[in-house]
Recover the amino acids of this structure.
């Protein structure tokens, strides 16, 4: 039985009809063609599908579209400036070589943005503890931690 | 235009590919949706070993949205998944090479073995229909443990009743035996190199399309080597003319070996795309990845090291059982042989080495190359036994290594390789310094005050990379060449597109290769574009694995670029009215030696495409060259790693406090990328040592670690920050870039350093052995057993 | 595959009625355990009754000597709540260690308790503090709520609305994680209220349980030293890839000592 759903994705209103078991990740990728959100597992373990739901990081493979009626969703596409520049977290990942194959990267960046915006995490150990919801198989996390450290003060000063 | 500028080679240039990855605009296989897209699901065996009695697909065929249902019978005229390497046993007989059907025919041989392919309008419809297929099995006993497979009494394949695929050996056994007879000391070690599941974060995926308009196929696939995939699929499986199959490996989300091979699902999709008349996409769910991606390692080994009274190594004797799994994957037989046994000299001048390898079939997922492939297994046993010998002889472990280092190059090992260059003292002494080894006792005392144990462990590894000289590989059983191809296309405006047969799935080729070419021509980095991963664009390629991309693929590009410059020189000579010999190329400009008469690279490019004033009788127009490079030898990266662990004797929990890696990769093009490769390798090596272990139920053959909830991939807080330094090394002497390769080093060198450190911490308790992964439970158990409290 | 319906009630009464009318429906809280089960085909309910619209079920309220936490409060909300951090820091610490940050933003205390996963963290706190579960129809003391593997005292159409935590004098939770899932291999929650000590263990058995021997020893003196020499029998504890029953039995007093030390710190 299809469901009528309204939500906002990257600032635009979306009205859609979906089946109740449609996952947010599937909806973003297959209905809206926002393929920057990736799916890497079936147990909500890898975090590649991380998006912001009303500003908070969630795993979009573990949320039903039905549950996010009237919510605001932000994906990696939604944080990318239109002028070809980069969000400070994106720029830091690039500058610090915080990515290799790029598959975990959008989820990792969305997760890192939530970490910086909602948690006062700034030490190496705190950032590592804050990123345990995202798996990266390429970088060994070393440069990801550096990237978050580099982006955090820039994001915090922009916020204040 | 191009003027003198600092070289890009050696600079930590930010990666060209990163904009698309950080903005989510990369294009991975699953992102591709073709017009009239159909989707596939596979029915897989729930049994490790069973006869297929019957298979009823009637209900599935009639289910909503189903476009086709295919089983092994439908593919009876199709070849099996081929193996690319032929090993001969010591008695001269070829390895047992059973057919690996695309879909199971009369028997299933591992949990996850595909039985049927369902094509439907949606993934959901395909999966629903899959549940309607009725399969009747006659379950058989399973051979699971490689150590006992030969005596298990159950044959995975009829052609190998004792499950032995081959028994192979290298080295002079008589010389080894006689050295042992005269040894002052013999150190012995039995170990298991734990089986690993690669788990690239992007699951395998494929999308196959048949075009009746020109009777041709296109396959988008998560591959590390699209040309090899095309060749194997066309020539050995489906019989499609090679020129009628295009294979595209777009952005690929990590491989680590697991995406080298031709897999059954990919061939099944291509085959079915013509029958269905629609493009068919399949993306593995993670649980399918666990069951079907080729696994890595899985050796059961005994080793003995003979030493004289001064601690000089006299001989090494190794006996290994290597698990092949249920079928021979593409490279499987070469891993425990050519890439393992031949590396057993390590950094040492051990004069006599013998290694016997028995490869066995089991009712488990096929095993093949995984980051390091054979070399981690060799390094692990060697660096473990060396450190054990040091403990037994009460010699400082680095000192024992130093006494045995190879110091003269080239050096021919007793196991068939010739090392061209190296300086093992340099990496060891720098690693000891960076790791602050003198400060260790103070740190240990501090840990002890907190009730914790601290240990330090070392590992000096070597690897053979730049795979591989085709003639040597051929003599050792390779059924293919292992050269690489490259093409340099200079456009009329002087901009350059480079086509490489290497494939980047995280390695950063688009940047590193562009640095090389930009320097070669004196261009800006943005004026060079690297293209890879499409058989329709790239002339040929052997792909990316074995830390070969820059050493072999980069060398092919350099060769092609040299041809461009040679032709450019001739064009310039004509335009500048000088002789070819008088033209020099420097800083992006061709000039007549000793004069100010010159032409820029772009002017020459334009002249080549607008050949109005051109030596047309002697020289073709255009500026486009290709080259094939076959390396004369392997390359031999080497380094020293130091690991310091702290562990809690109450719980068994271990934490790496510091990890130091000091590597010699020869010349380095992009130090930022090289360091990143080392970090990633270390994470996988530390993962092997502490976290990752594939486990099967010994009786049923069920995979017990079949999800990320039971198979532990390293997370950010499992790992320390790394102290990584690349020494100003010894450049490789036989390739034009002087590079050796860096992709696998971290995964090769780190596991023994971690385990040696743990054993150092536990030595006062009498713990002598720990199995990988050394989980808290295992460490606690080892402690409890040593204390006799269990 | 039978198709799934979705309902989003706007009152608890309506939600209970829906659950009553369709016994094959599943209540949906944060979904962090249910959705993976659905994806893996381990669960095929007729409908989801999503409690996400029930604002009454959210929030933390301090009431005298107890904290009342709405069933639909997320783990992150509990971990970050100023009241919880001030009055029951052990619970904030526990909540901040559940799953990962993304899971904590969605998963709820009510959902976790209703699911009663044997390795979940919250059952440790609820039993270790002697909390009371409020449902649409009654109050259930912690000691009678947890009834076995994934089993609770809840009726088929009964909905947890809040958890009432009495404030202890001292409390702490120490978890030893299973390395892959990060669920508790063993987790120990200790609390001291007046002369009463509670020790609850999660992860080690089929269901969270109290350990009278440890409680009695700590009642005599609430210090790590009081536990010297106490060992646990391994009978009835879990054995899996990540640890044997003996290992879990060994960890229980070790982690209890650490929890007591933390509670005293």
């Amino acid at each position: 039985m299809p469901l009528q759903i309204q939500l906002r994705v990257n600032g635009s209103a979306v009205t859609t009809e979906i089946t109740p078991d449609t996952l947010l990740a599937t909806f973003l990728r297959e209905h809206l063609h926002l393929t920057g959100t990736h799916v890497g597992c079936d147990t909500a373990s890898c975090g590649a599908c991380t998006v912001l739901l009303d500003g908070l990081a969630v795993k979009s493979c573990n949320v039903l579209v039905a549950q996010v009626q009237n919510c605001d969703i932000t994906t990696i596409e939604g944080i990318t400036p239109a002028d070809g520049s980069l969000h400070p977290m994106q720029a830091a990942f690039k500058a610090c070589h915080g990515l290799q194959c790029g598959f975990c990267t959008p989820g990792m960046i969305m997760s890192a943005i939530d970490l910086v915006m909602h948690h006062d995490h700034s030490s190496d150990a705190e950032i590592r503890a804050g990123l345990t919801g995202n798996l990266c198989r390429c970088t060994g996390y070393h440069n990801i931690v550096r990237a978050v450290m580099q982006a955090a003060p820039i994001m915090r000063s922009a916020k204040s | 235009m191009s003027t003198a500028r600092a070289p890009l080679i050696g600079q930590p240039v930010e990666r060209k590919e990163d904009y698309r990855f950080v903005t989510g605009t990369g294009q991975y296989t699953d992102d591709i949706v073709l017009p009239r897209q159909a989707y596939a699901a596979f029915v897989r065996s729930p049994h490790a070993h069973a006869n297929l009695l019957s298979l009823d697909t009637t209900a599935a065929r009639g289910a909503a949205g189903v476009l086709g249902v295919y089983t092994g019978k439908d593919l009876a005229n199709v070849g099996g998944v081929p193996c690319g390497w032929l090993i001969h046993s010591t008695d001269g007989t070829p390895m047992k090479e059973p057919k690996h059907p695309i879909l199971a025919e009369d028997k299933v041989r591992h949990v996850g073995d595909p039985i049927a392919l369902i094509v439907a309008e949606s993934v959901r419809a395909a999966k629903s229909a899959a549940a309607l297929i009725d399969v009747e099995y006659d379950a058989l006993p399973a051979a699971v443990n490689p150590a006992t497979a030969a005596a298990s009494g159950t044959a995975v394949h009829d052609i190998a009743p004792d499950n032995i695929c081959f028994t192979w050996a290298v080295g002079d056994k008589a010389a080894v035996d006689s050295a042992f007879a005269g040894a002052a000391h013999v150190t012995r070690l039995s170990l298991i190199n734990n089986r690993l599941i690669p788990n690239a974060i992007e699951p395998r995926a494929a999308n196959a399309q048949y075009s009746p308009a020109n009777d041709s196929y296109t396959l988008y696939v998560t591959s590390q080597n699209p040309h090899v995939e095309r060749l194997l699929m066309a020539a050995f499986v489906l019989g499609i003319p090679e020129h009628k199959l295009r294979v595209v490996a777009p952005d690929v989300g990590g491989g680590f070996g697991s995406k080298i091979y031709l897999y059954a699902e990919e061939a099944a999709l291509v085959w079915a795309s013509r029958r269905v008349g629609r493009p068919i996409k399949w993306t593995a769910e993670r649980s399918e990845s666990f069951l079907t991606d080729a696994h890595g390692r899985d050796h059961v080994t005994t080793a003995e090291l003979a030493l004289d009274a001064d601690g000089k190594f006299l001989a090494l004797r190794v006996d290994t059982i290597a698990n092949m799994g249920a079928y021979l994957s593409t490279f499987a037989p070469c891993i425990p042989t050519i890439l393992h046994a031949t590396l057993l000299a390590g950094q040492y001048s051990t004069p006599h080495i013998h290694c016997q390898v028995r490869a066995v079939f089991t009712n488990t997922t096929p095993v093949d190359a995984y980051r390091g492939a054979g070399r981690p297994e060799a390094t692990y046993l060697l660096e473990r036994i060396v450190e054990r010998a040091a403990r037994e002889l009460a010699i400082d472990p680095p000192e024992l290594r130093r006494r045995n280092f190879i110091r003269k190059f080239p050096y021919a090992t007793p196991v068939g390789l010739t090392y061209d260059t190296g300086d093992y003292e340099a990496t060891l002494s720098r690693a000891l310094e960076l790791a602050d080894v003198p400060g260790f006792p103070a740190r240990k005392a501090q840990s002890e005050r907190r009730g914790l144990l601290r240990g330090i462990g070392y590992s000096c590894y070597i690897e053979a990379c730049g795979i591989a000289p085709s003639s040597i590989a051929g003599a050792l059983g390779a059924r293919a060449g292992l050269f690489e191809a490259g093409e340099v296309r200079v456009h009329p405006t002087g901009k350059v597109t480079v086509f490489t047969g290497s494939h980047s799935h995280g390695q950063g080729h688009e940047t590193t290769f562009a640095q090389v070419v930009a320097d070669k021509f004196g261009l800006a980095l943005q004026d060079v574009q690297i293209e890879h991963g499409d058989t329709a664009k790239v002339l040929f390629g052997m792909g990316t694995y074995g830390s070969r991309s820059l050493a072999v693929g980069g060398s092919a590009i350099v060769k092609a670029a040299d041809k461009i410059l040679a032709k450019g020189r001739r064009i310039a000579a004509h335009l500048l009215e000088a002789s070819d010999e008088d033209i020099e190329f420097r800083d992006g400009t061709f000039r007549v030696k000793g004069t100010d008469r010159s032409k820029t690279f772009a002017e020459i490019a334009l002249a080549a495409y607008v050949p109005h004033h051109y030596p047309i009788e002697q020289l073709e127009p255009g500026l486009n060259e290709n080259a094939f490079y076959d390396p004369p030898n392997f390359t031999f990266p080497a380094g020293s790693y130091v690991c310091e662990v702290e562990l809690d004797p109450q719980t068994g929990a271990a934490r790496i406090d510091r990890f130091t890696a000091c590597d010699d990769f020869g010349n380095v093009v992009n130090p930022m990328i090289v360091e990143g490769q080392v970090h990633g390798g270390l994470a996988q090596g530390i993962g092997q040592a502490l976290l990752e272990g594939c486990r099967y139920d010994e009786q049923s053959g069920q995979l017990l670690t079949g999800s990320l909830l039971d198979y532990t991939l390293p997370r950010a807080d499992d790992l320390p920050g790394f102290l990584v330094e690349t020494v100003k090394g010894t450049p490789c002497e036989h390739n034009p870039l002087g590079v050796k390769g860096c992709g696998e080093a971290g995964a090769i060198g780190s596991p023994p350093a971690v385990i040696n450190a743990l054993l150092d911490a536990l030595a006062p308790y009498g713990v002598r052995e720990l199995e990988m992964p050394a989980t808290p439970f295992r460490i606690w158990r080892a402690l409890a057993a040593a204390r006799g409290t269990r | 595959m039978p198709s799934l319906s979705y309902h989003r009630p706007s009152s608890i009464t309506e939600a209970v009625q829906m659950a009553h009318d369709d016994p094959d429906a599943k209540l949906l809280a944060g979904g962090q355990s249910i959705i993976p089960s659905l994806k893996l085909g381990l669960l095929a309910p007729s409908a989801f009754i999503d409690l996400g619209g029930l604002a009454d079920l959210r929030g933390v309220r301090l009431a005298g000597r107890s904290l009342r936490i709405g069933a639909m409060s997320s783990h992150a909300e509990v971990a970050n709540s100023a009241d919880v951090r001030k009055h029951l820091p052990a619970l904030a610490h526990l909540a901040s260690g559940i799953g990962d940050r993304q899971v904590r933003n969605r998963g709820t205390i009510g959902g976790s308790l209703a699911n009663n996963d044997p390795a979940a963290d919250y059952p440790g706190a609820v039993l270790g503090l002697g909390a009371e579960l409020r449902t649409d129809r009654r109050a259930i003391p912690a000691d009678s709520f947890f009834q076995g593997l994934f089993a609770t005292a809840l009726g088929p159409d009964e909905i947890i609305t809040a958890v009432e935590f009495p404030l202890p004098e001292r409390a702490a939770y120490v978890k030893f994680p299973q390395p892959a899932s990060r669920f508790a291999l063993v987790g120990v929650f200790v609390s001291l209220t007046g002369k009463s000590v509670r020790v609850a263990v999660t992860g080690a058995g089929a269901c969270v349980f109290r350990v009278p021997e440890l409680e009695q020893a700590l009642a005599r003196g609430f210090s790590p030293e009081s536990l010297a020499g106490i060992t646990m029998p391994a009978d009835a504890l879990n054995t899996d890839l990540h640890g044997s029953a003996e290992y879990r039995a060994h960890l229980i007093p070790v982690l209890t000592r650490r929890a007591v030390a933390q509670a005293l710190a």
